[in-house]
Structures are given as C-alpha cells and as structure tokens.
Amino acid sequence: MLHYYETWASVGRNETFKVMLSLVVNFNYIPYQFNIEAAFLHGEMDALVHVKQAKGYEEKGKENWVWNLRKSLYGTKQAPRMWKYKLASVLNSLGLISTRSDESLFINAEKSLLLHVHIDDGFIISQLENKITEFLTKLNSNLRKDPLNIWATH
Fold it and tell me: Which partner for 53 in 28, 46, 58, 130 could form a disulfide, CB atoms 3.0-4.6 Å apart?
C-alpha cells in the first residue's frame, strides 16, 4: 500500500534522551554517539517510482528511458519513512526492539544496551563498553556509520 503523503522522519523524544543522560551521570553508563552516512539512501522503496536519467549519466541508445527507483533517494517523499523501516529492520536483526513509549528508543535487555535514534543520529549507552563495541561493529556491517565519540571517557 502506498503511503505517499506519510512524509515523517522519526525523531526521538527529549524526555527519553534526558533519562539516558541521567543513567550516564548517575549510574556510570558508557555513552557513544554516531551518525549513519547518507541514511535516506539505505531505504528500499515500497512503491513504483520512475525517474529520468540524470544528465551525463544517460545510457547510450536509451537516453529517453526512465529508471525504476529501487532505493529511496533524498528528495522523495517516502525517503524518511523508508529509512525508518530499514533501520528498525536492521536493529531488530541485531536483537534490539523498539519501545512502546518512544519508537526511537531501542533496547536489548540481555546485553544491557539502550539506543536512542534521532533520524540518522544514534546515542547508545551501556554499562559494558565491549557490548557497545560489539553492537557498533555489527551495525557497521549493515549500515555505514561515522563515529562521533564525543562522549569518550578515555
């Protein structure tokens, strides 16, 4: 089903982020921040969308043909939603589940990880640094990310 007019981008609740910061300050959770590169380009289209070939990239003999867009593209109305679906799918496959109170908060109780997502930025905390490193390694094999470890405690 096409949800052409659902153009939202998932953003986390401020209250959730503040609670996570409180865990860092009061209970010595280890914080880590990262950004997913070109996030909206990771989503897979759920609708048939055709685009003209970009000038300079036309296929010889097929200059008037159009392309079927398989991945979301910045500027398409579906891109933010398709990114959210892709991210949720990847995080679920890594053992994290979204909470009911804030769909941008993903948890893995077994590994004591909490991940807060704001569009393409992630803030992850845990009491065990090796769990963060393990998670980020697995995440990076699915989605390219830029480390922004401005919270480093070293």
Answer: 58
Burial annotation 73-92 (CB, 10 A radius, 16+ → b, else e)? beebebbbbbbbbbbbebbe
Structure tokens, 110 = 């077994």
Q: Residues in the chain, how many?
A: 154
Report CA-CA distances (Å) from 44 to 71, 92, 131, 134: 4, 17, 29, 26
Q: Is the dihedral of CA 148, 150, 151, 153 positive or negative?
A: positive
What CA–CA distances, in Å, run from 127 to 14, 32, 60, 132, 139? 22, 11, 57, 9, 19
Distances in whole angstroms, Cα of residue 34 to Cα of each of 65, 114, 120, 151: 39, 14, 9, 10
Q: What is the pTM of this model?
A: 0.78
Q: How confident is residue 88, by pLDDT bands cut at 50, 70 and 90?
A: very high
Torsion sign (Cα): 40, 41, 42, 45: positive
Tokens 């070293």: give the residue.
154
Domains, the chain, in order of start with CATH, read: 30-43+66-154 (3.30.70.270)
Residue 108: closest CA among 123, 120, 125: 125
